[in-house]
Design brief:
Blueprint (H helix, E strand, L loop, with lengths): L1 E6 L5 H13 L4 E5 L2 H6 L1 H13 L3 E5 L15 H4 L4 E3 L5 E5 L4 H16 L4 E5 L23 H11 L9 H24 L3 E6 L12 H5 L6 E4 L3 H4 L4 H18 L3 E7 L7 H15 L5 E5 L15 H11 L4
Parallel strand pairs: 1-2, 1-10, 2-3, 3-6, 6-7, 7-8, 8-9, 9-10
Antiparallel strand pairs: 4-5
Helix pairs in contact: 1-3, 5-7, 10-11, 11-12
C-alpha cells in the first residue's frame, strides 16, 4: 500500500528536503505537493527542484491545483477570479460569485496551461482535488438556500445547445444533469491533456454521492480511460462526527470496488486538520487509518503533513498526536 501526505507552505528546498527525509524515515513513500496559482506564477522553477528532491528520495509525486479558480479544494487565494470576473460563475439569482466557471473559455485555457506546467515540473500524477461547482456553505457570505450555479452566459449557451431550450432559473433534474456533464467534460479534457503531457491522473471526489458536491454517479468517472487513480477524502469530523470507522469504511469500500471494476488504482485520504486534541478524536484517527490499512485500497494519504500545524486556521489542537496516530497505523513495509 502506498502511504503519503500532502505538503504545502514551504518553498525553501533545503527545508523541504529535511521534511522529505523525515517522511521517508517515518515510512512514507508518496508526497503531494500543492501547486497554487501563486506557485505557478512565481515558484515554477523552485517547484521543479522540489519535485526532483522528492524523486531523489523515491517518492511517488502528486501535484494538485490548490484552490485554483476556487473550484478545487485548498487554502489558497485565486488571482484568476480577480483578473477574469467574466469567467466566474453566476448564481441563479443573477449574482456573480468568486469562483471560476468550468464552461468559461478563459478558465479552460488557464487550466490547460496549469496542466502543462504541472506535468512539466515533473509530477508523476496530477491530482484533481475536490472539483466542484459553487457550494454555499463553503463561503463566508450568506446566499439564498436554493441558489445554485452556474447560469453565466457560457453555461446558458451550452445548456440551450444541449437541450434546445433556455436554461431555467430553478435547479431542475435537467439542470443537475447538465452540471454533472459539464464537470465530467472538464475533467475529461484536462485528464486527456495530462496523459499527452506524460503524467497520470487522480481525481479526488468529495465524499457525498450527489451532484451538489461533485458527482452523484461515481461510476461515470471511474469508467473514463484517462483516469488512473480514483480517490475520495471521507473526513468524518466534517461529515459524520462519531462515525469515523463507518464513514471511512463505506467510502473505502465504494472506491475500492469501482477501482477494481474499472482497473484503476484506489486512494483514501485521512483527515488531519480541524481536529480537537481529545483522546476520542485521536482514537478516531487510529480507527480511520486502520480501516484503510486493513482494506485492499492501493494508497492512503493524510491531509496534511504534521496535521496541518503550520496553517493556524485549520491546524489540529494536538497536531503531533494526530500525525503520530496516522503514522502508527500505516502498514509495515
Amino acid at each position: 500500500m502506498e502511504t503519503g501526505t500532502s505538503y504545502f507552505g514551504v518553498r525553501d528546498v533545503d527545508h523541504v528536503t529535511s521534511d522529505l527525509d523525515r517522511f521517508a524515515d517515518e515510512g512514507l513513500d508518496a508526497i503531494l505537493h500543492t501547486f497554487s496559482e501563486r506557485d505557478r506564477e512565481y515558484y515554477t522553477g523552485t517547484m521543479g527542484d522540489i519535485i526532483e528532491a522528492s524523486h531523489d528520495r523515491g517518492f511517488e509525486t502528486y501535484v494538485n491545483p490548490w484552490s485554483v479558480g476556487r473550484v478545487f479544494g485548498g487554502e489558497a487565494l485565486s488571482a484568476f477570479i480577480g483578473k477574469h470576473p467574466d469567467a466566474c460563475q453566476v448564481l441563479s439569482t443573477g449574482e456573480r460569485i468568486p469562483a471560476a466557471c468550468f464552461n468559461a473559455p478563459e478558465f479552460r485555457e488557464y487550466m490547460r496551461g496549469w496542466t502543462r506546467d504541472a506535468a512539466g515540473i515533473g509530477a508523476d500524477v496530477l491530482f484533481w482535488d475536490e472539483p466542484h461547482w459553487f457550494i454555499a456553505s463553503w463561503h463566508e457570505e450568506e446566499y439564498p438556500e436554493d441558489a445554485w450555479a452556474c447560469r453565466c452566459e457560457h453555461c446558458q449557451a451550452a445548456y440551450e445547445e444541449e437541450y434546445g431550450e433556455s436554461m431555467p432559473d430553478e435547479q431542475t433534474d435537467r439542470v443537475t444533469a447538465f452540471r454533472e456533464d459539464a464537470l465530467l467534460d472538464f475533467l475529461d479534457e484536462m485528464m486527456t491533456l495530462t496523459h499527452k503531457e506524460g503524467a497520470e491522473n487522480a481525481v479526488c471526489l468529495l465524499p457525498s454521492e450527489d451532484a451538489d458536491h461533485g458527482l452523484s454517479d461515481w461510476e461515470r468517472l471511474a469508467a473514463n480511460d484517462a483516469l488512473d487513480v480514483l480517490a475520495t477524502d471521507p473526513y468524518w469530523a466534517i461529515h459524520a462526527p462519531d462515525e469515523a470507522g463507518e464513514f471511512v469504511g463505506y467510502f473505502t469500500d465504494l472506491v475500492e470496488s469501482l477501482a477494481e471494476e474499472y482497473d484503476k488504482r484506489s486512494q483514501i485520504w485521512i483527515q488531519g486538520f480541524r481536529l480537537d486534541g481529545s483522546d476520542a478524536t485521536i482514537e478516531d484517527v487510529h480507527t480511520a487509518t486502520r480501516t484503510v490499512a486493513d482494506s485492499d485500497v492501493d494508497s492512503v494519504f493524510m491531509w496534511g503533513y504534521d496535521a496541518c500545524r503550520i496553517i493556524s486556521d485549520i491546524a489540529c489542537e494536538d497536531p503531533e498526536a494526530v500525525w503520530n496516530a496516522y503514522i502508527d497505523e500505516l502498514p509495515a513495509e
